[in-house]
Amino acid sequence: MNRTLPEMEPDPASLPIGTKVGPWRVTGWRGRGTSGTVYRVEKEGEEGAYALKLALHVGDERFEREASLLTRIRSAYVPVLHGQGLWQHRRGVFPYLVMQWVEGMPLYEWTVSHQASSRQALRVLARVAQALGDTHEAGGVHRDVKGDNVLVQGGEGHPYLMDYGAGDYRGAATLTWQVLPPGTPAYRSPEAWAFQELFWRHPTARYEASACDDLFALGITAYRMVTGEYPPPTEPEGEGAEVWRQEGPGPRPPSALNPRVSPELDALVLQLCAVSAMERFKGSARGAAQALEEAAQSAGPGADRALGVKESGVPEWARRSEGSVWEVHRAAPTPAPVVLFEEGEGWEGERPVEASGWPQALDGAWVGSVAAVVVLLLLVPMVSGLMTRQWRPEVSEGVWVEWDGESRDGGVTAMGDSAATAPVAFAAPMEASRLRPGLGLPIPEMPFPGQRKPPCYRSGEAEIRGGCWYELARVRSPCKEDAYDWKGACYVPSFHAHRTPTSGQP
């Protein structure tokens, strides 16, 4: 007897061309981040392209915060917000934003392809600093400045500071419970990491990102732009991180890695990367923009020499901290492997054929156990993704791989948000239709991996379902999406002291 298969609903992560989202029709795809996918769209009856960023999570409150921040900013170097709305879906309501469409190249790619000079780099960086100045004057912070969040147009270099999904502004609601705010670890300031070292076990301590953090991230971006390499990691456990300690010397000058960097550019990049927050133009992005522009105008003929930057090998620490293929691994303390699956007779015929990123000296039996757990974890989203068209075959012989739109810098649409930093639930996600309206996630039946188990003797801990939890003071149900609901109160899990801090990984 023939059966008619039900028509599959479009998935927010991979909408087909022609899909309608409100009055907007999808005409192309741009990129995907942790919690949003960007599409090229057009509006019925109008000419011109727009960028539509659609949430990957039902009712994602970060989209409302991003829209509120963008409406406050007036800048020639920040995309204009044209609208926002809600997309009805069987799984729930997905928010979306519609912004100015920007045709451009990611900053590092633009630098290489245009063989940019020191003078051009100074001007582009001055304009990005101007975008930050406009953001700060509007009461906001970007919190995820990096090369892939800067798109540059044309040979003259008109940059746009993209992706305010990790941004914040005065008076905005707190949406995450981690010590560090959203962001990309490779670009975090030394003072942010120092704060986490002191307070990562504290259940309510929160680091407040400032203009100095944005300027430091711009400094790391500039360093990578003009040398093709990153300075030593600012994360305290990283190799060479001692240069960022208080009273430390900071990184080597960019000119030590690339002699073509002009003295003016060299000095300003180092000032942006200063160990002391107040040495970064006293927290003034306007001051940084002015200094960069003046240097571009006054620099000698040597500043017109091409920097000669090539896409060099990114250090392993930066590769690990800037993104991984599997979202489920982004909160893991070890590097995430890229696991490929060989196509077989249905899903049961698949087996992992390649895994990279795991320590080589590990015992074989331990690796086998971990691999079994990884495969089990991946099968849940894999089957779900098959039903909703999240998985797509790559152009390779007999291989399926998880499709990922991000580069190793985190991607143009990388959100760097709490969805990537919340504890990993080893269970299938609960559909929104099974939750009461406005209610956060229920506490799982079993503790998370690495979560403390009874006796729960730390101050403020409570024992719930075999695990230790902290109650968020003065926060009642309904909980935000990265806290868990239990009997009308909101809780976050308690982890062991030896657990490697992961709260900032995107």
From TrEMBL:
Stored InterPro entries: Kinase-like_dom_sf (IPR011009), Prot_kinase_dom (IPR000719)
Question: Which keywords, in A-to-Z order, does the entry hold?
Answer: ATP-binding, Kinase, Membrane, Nucleotide-binding, Transferase, Transmembrane, Transmembrane helix
Q: Give positions of region: Disordered.
A: 229-260
Superkingdom assignment = Bacteria
- Give this protein's Gene Ontology molecular function annotations: kinase activity
List the Gene3D superfamilies: Phosphorylase Kinase, domain 1, Transferase(Phosphotransferase) domain 1
Keyword rRNA-binding applies:
no
Query: Where do the TM regions start and end?
Result: 364-383
Specify whether Oxidoreductase is a keyword of the entry. Answer: no
The record's section on CDD domains has:
STKc_PknB_like
Q: Where is the Protein kinase domain?
A: 24-292
Name listed for the protein in its UniProt record: Serine/threonine-protein kinase
Please give the organism: Stigmatella ashevillensis
